Input
Amino acid sequence: MNATIENKILQQDELKKVIVNLKKENKKIVFSNGCFDIIHKGHIDYLSKAKQLGDILIIGLNSDSSVKRIKGSSRPIQDESSRSWIMASLFFVDYVVLFDEDTPYNLIKTIEPDVLVKGADYKKEDIVGYDIVSKNNGRVETIEFLQGYSTTNIVRKIESETKYNKLNEIIRQTHLKFVKPNMISEGWQGEFLSIICRVLKPKHILEIGTFSGYATTCFALSSENDCRIDTIEVKQEYEDFLKESFLKNNIQDKINIHFGEGLNIIPTLPYSYDLIFIDAEKIHYPQYYDLCIEKLNKGGLLIADNVLWYGKVDDESINDKRTLAIREFNEKANKDTRVENIIVPLRDGLMLVVKK
Output
């Protein structure tokens, strides 16, 4: 480790001694805080401007546990040791100190900085520590952020690009290994399902008709870490492909695959669901509706694919078993007073059913 950088990273008891000496030397102390997970140009601009407000810039860095409570279980991207090291390597940062609380109030109380700095998205009087600094005749300043730069946006961009790479590989493998690859819920439909999942934030998802796992993967990549997905596939021969794909995409812990006939499996499932997606044997759609509506939580969403059935549902001259079953499914949803529903004309039609 570089000794110069290491010496800038302090424990809170070490910081107290440093503060005493700095105040004896009449140094103007500037304090700011943050997670500083992925350093970008906006951070550099902000911190360099903060340094110009005094002689010594001290950064309070949220510990890993603090970041998780504030940002969610997927953060931080970099651990507290790495973040401390990177921050301390910046020449305009004089000291870095970790804190475990959600706010740096106690740390500010210890330092009693001459200048307290935060981003201009805060009102000065709302900044944590405003009362402490003002009482000691210090200044509270805000600095405008550079537009277009944020760790959250960087993380989203990385996740989005990674997600599309994963989904494109499933499409490729489906066309290589499956007899009817056009059955996959790809493209706009997959993105629609992902958006629905991000908005709804379901805890339990039921999917009937796994096929090559494209929609399953959309749900898994777009849901919270604690979401669990039950997916039902009638064809046992897909098992190796699906398990390998889910493992490769690191979503296997979210997914329970059930092989067999959905009409037999659904009644055995112990959960109720916030989101249900039906894309399986069309002849069984009416029975799926009856079973799934009982499993759907109030406020939950049921989505069924192929409800326009290539326009056949609107052609009275067509009366094959699948067309009749989908018509019956649509009529059930329309007449059910427990729900509200709408058909979205995306690809072959998606029925959205919300339980009141």
Notes: The chain has two domains: 3-149, 153-355. The chain is about 40% helix and 20% strand. Residues 111 and 240 are 59 Å apart (CA to CA). The longest helix spans residues 151-177.
